[in-house]
Write a structure and sequence with these properties.
Chain lengths: 493, 325
């Protein structure tokens, strides 16, 4: 009873909160006021429903160990709602697009799936009395079933160095289970442009560009722990380097690719050097300032950068024969795939190298690091420079892909999205960055059908991931060095 | 709507007629001075929210600019409703301000409960991303519920007769903004210094664990901080919206970034620092726009920030936080 009253109060609070903005619409020119009372009702009912679902979800998870058949209420709520939803979709007019169902899915069902996926204990196998979960939460069930193929039932899984592994993490750490998946992914990636439309290929190139940007920033933030809010500046440097060199000197893509990397690295050093004294959020705001300064200079120094109208007609990467636009996109796709694989390889190697370990140590404790003889300035500068290198590299690719750039592609929002990719995915983790780019770039791109609610869901999603999984979707796992006694004895002998 | 849109950093600024006057006259200087003071006051009002929240939970509350925007929207809606009912101008101003304050405070409180409270003990960057997500969510919420167009904001401050001789360089609404900011800042300073809640806030900012041990209800103090910060931002939002005459859903974001810059400039976590930082930023922008070039207005603001932080990494009035072992 108390819970019901509380739920009602929360609903009322949200109705009050959204009252002026959602209910009243003022047209100050014609002095007309539109009252939309139904919106208040929707909000009230929606908030009530969300709370009911949330409590039901908590209930089912709490009951897992006990006999859950007794709890009729949770069952009723949990089973009825998706059944109703499915019935809704099944009976809808098939001529119309999936609008309402899409919205219901995005607002109610998808978040629950996500919560279940992120929170459910990782070592449980599906069994027959999981059936409400099977209906309600198919994604986590599928993953469990797949993992079940690779290990004996009930075997506890622990991952050294990770505190709360979730299903995704368990899967990634399970090498045996991942190998066929990686292979499948690679084959899929190679065949992808042949299977889908030109537009989808284009989206995929974009997606890979964001992954590389994320991996670059991951070096600065995830490994070295330096909060950089102006990362997009290096991306802009790479893009403008190619655009201008191509425009004035006709240099081709393959020459500028390494030049762009060097430019990125040099800019990283130049910007990094004066700000290294700053810590934490001060560093963030100064890098933000630098990023904005570079964008504003690009915008206003018209004689050099062509100002806000940008540079157009940039050459695509040359090939032995002339390519149509579609073929050029495919070609770009394979170039980017190659660069991505190279980036992943290099960054993985870097992470466990001497300098990678120095970054991690510096992130943990600067003073202890200096006591151990790690050169603080040099290490931090390397992180800045190596992070910026990748941004410079994909900047060149971006300019070659779009054949047109202007300063609007390099705003603060882009920096923020790269940062979100790294943090939502899981700081310091390479599969994490890829997952982050997947959920923050690719999924919104696919959801263009529900255009107007896309960004709303994007914001809500970021909050939700952080609230339910603050360490990111895939938390970083550090390499564990184990002392192997037998080996040590052997070596000694 | 040919007005320059300063909220998006497009140059220009709320200086009517600035480009037609002769550079170098006293009037011109005074106009820039008061324009900068107005702008700085608004930055200070928003920056106070940033700095108070940062002082207590060390979080850059990126959604704060959105709270300011929501305050302005609430003000606009209330003013529109009252306007059609035929209320007098000053009456509308006060009711709109009160409503904006109430609803902004409610939003601030709710945002804290949903997006930051569960993350008290999380890694440092998680609440930051949560705040960014909240900011995107609120922007799009207003965009969907209202409109993406610029809405004209009614003028809420009357032109007083005694202002006539001063009109060439300062307008009534500018004086109104400066006056209200001064009032709010004094009230806030007294509040923090002398009331029980203010003392609890300072204690929590100094050391949360110790404050908890001596019986300060830390959760309540944090909520109160968000409520006060949001209320201040709402005051700024309504006043500036009425001054520049138009708003849209995006106008909180850049203003928020600038105000955060001001807070850092003055030394984040310090209340007088936020006021000082706001004023310095406002004047820098105004004079740089007036005497140098309006294209590079934001460049000057950020360059100043970078210079100050390089030579004084903890901000002008910030406490020196030497790291100890």
């Amino acid at each position: 009873m108390q819970q019901i009253i509380r739920a009602l109060l929360v609903s009322l609070w949200f109705m009050f909160l959204t009252f002026p903005i959602l209910v009243i619409k003022v047209d100050t020119i014609n002095d007309i006021i539109v009252w939309r009372w139904m919106n208040a009702l929707y909000i009230g009912a929606g908030v009530l429903l969300l709370q009911a679902l949330w409590h039901a979800w908590k209930h089912v998870h709490a009951l897992r160990k006990e006999d859950r058949d007794r709890d009729a209420v949770a069952w009723a709520v949990l089973v009825c709602l998706p059944v109703l939803w499915l019935a809704w979709i099944a009976t809808r007019n098939t001529d119309k697009p999936l609008h309402v169902a899409d919205k219901v899915f995005m607002i109610l069902v998808a978040p629950l799936w996500l919560v279940d996926f992120l929170r459910s204990p990782q070592d449980r196998q599906p069994d027959w009395h999981d059936w409400p979960c099977m209906i309600l939460f198919p994604p986590s069930l599928l993953v469990r079933a797949y993992l079940g193929l690779f290990r004996a039932r009930g075997e506890a899984v622990s991952i050294p160095g990770v505190e709360h592994p979730n299903l995704l993490q368990t899967m990634l750490e399970n090498q045996k289970a991942m190998r066929p998946l990686y292979l499948l992914l690679l084959v899929l990636a190679v065949c992808y442009p042949q299977m889908v439309e030109f537009y989808q290929t284009n989206i995929m190139v974009n997606f890979m560009i964001w992954i590389v940007l994320g991996l670059g920033l991951n070096i600065v933030i995830g490994l070295a722990g330096l909060l950089d809010l102006g990362f997009v500046a290096f991306y802009a440097v790479g893009a403008y380097a190619y655009a201008l060199l191509n425009h004035h000197f006709g240099l081709s893509f393959w020459y500028v690719l390494p030049i762009g990397m060097v430019f990125g690295a040099v800019c990283g050093l130049l910007l990094g050097y004066p700000v290294l004294r700053l810590r934490g959020d001060y560093l963030a705001i100064v890098t933000l300032g630098f990023g904005e300064i570079i964008r504003l200079v690009l915008e206003n120094w018209s004689s050099f950068t062509h100002g806000p109208s940008g540079i157009s007609n940039i050459d695509r990467p040359p090939f032995v024969t002339d390519l149509s636009i579609m073929q050029a996109t495919e070609y770009m796709y394979y170039i980017m795939l190659g660069l991505l694989l190279m980036t992943i390889f290099v960054v993985t190697r870097l992470k466990n190298s001497r300098i990678g370990r120095a970054w991690l140590a510096l992130k943990e404790d600067e003073i202890a690091c200096q006591a151990m003889g790690i050169d603080k300035t040099k290490t931090k500068l390397t992180a800045f420079a190596l992070g910026a290198t990748w941004a410079g590299l994909v900047g060149v690719v971006f300019a070659a892909k779009t054949t047109f750039i202007n300063p609007m592609s390099f705003t603060l929002m882009e920096s923020i999205i790269i940062l979100s990719i790294v943090v939502v995915g899981g700081m310091g983790s390479i599969p994490g960055v890829i997952t982050g780019a997947l959920v923050l770039i690719l999924v919104p791109e696919w959801l263009r059908g529900v255009e107007e609610y896309r960004m709303l869901a994007f914001g809500a999603f970021m909050v939700m991931v952080m609230v339910f999984r603050p360490q990111g979707l895939v938390s970083a796992r550090r390499k564990v060095y184990q002392y192997d006694k037998a080996k040590a004895v052997n070596a000694h002998e | 709507m040919g007005r320059p849109d300063w909220s998006q950093g497009a140059g220009g600024g709320p200086f009517p007629g600035i480009y037609f006057k002769r550079v170098g006259t006293m009037d011109y200087f005074l106009e820039l001075f008061f324009g900068g003071l107005t702008r700085g006051s608004i930055y200070a009002l928003i920056a106070l929210g940033y700095t108070m929240v940062y002082g207590i939970i060390e979080l850059i509350n990126f959604a704060h600019g959105e709270i300011y925007m929501i305050g302005a929207f609430t003000g606009l809606i209330v003013a529109g409703v009252l306007g059609t009912l035929g209320f007098p101008m000053l009456g509308i101003l006060f009711v709109a301000l009160a409503c904006a304050v109430i609803w902004s405070a409610a939003y601030g409180y709710t945002v804290e409960k949903i997006a930051y409270k569960p993350l008290r003990n999380a890694p440092r960057l998680s609440p930051l991303i949560s705040a960014i997500g909240m900011s995107i969510f609120l922007q799009n919420y207003v965009l969907l519920a209202q409109t993406s167009d610029f809405l004209p904001f009614p003028k809420l401050t009357p032109d007083f007769a005694f202002m006539e001789p001063l009109r060439s360089f300062v307008s009534t609404s500018e004086l109104f903004i400066i006056g209200s900011t001064l009032l709010v800042c004094v009230a806030l300073t007294l509040f923090i210094k002398y009331t029980r809640l203010g003392k609890a806030m300072r204690a929590t900012a100094q050391n949360r664990k110790m404050a908890m041990l001596v019986g300060v209800k830390v959760d309540k103090v944090i909520s109160a901080t968000f409520v006060i910060g949001s209320a201040l931002a709402a005051v700024g939002g309504v006043l500036i919206a009425s001054h520049i005459g138009q708003i849209n859903f995006y106008f909180g974001f850049i203003a928020g970034v600038k105000a955060f810059t001001a807070a850092v400039l003055g030394g984040i976590g310090s209340v007088p620092g936020a006021m000082l930082g706001g004023l310095i930023l406002g004047w820098t922008e105004a004079f740089a726009t007036g005497y140098v070039s309006s294209d590079y207005e934001d460049v000057f603001a950020f360059a100043l920030l970078v210079l100050i932080l390089i030579f004084r990494p903890e901000g002008i009035l910030g406490k020196d936080s030497t790291q100890k072992v």
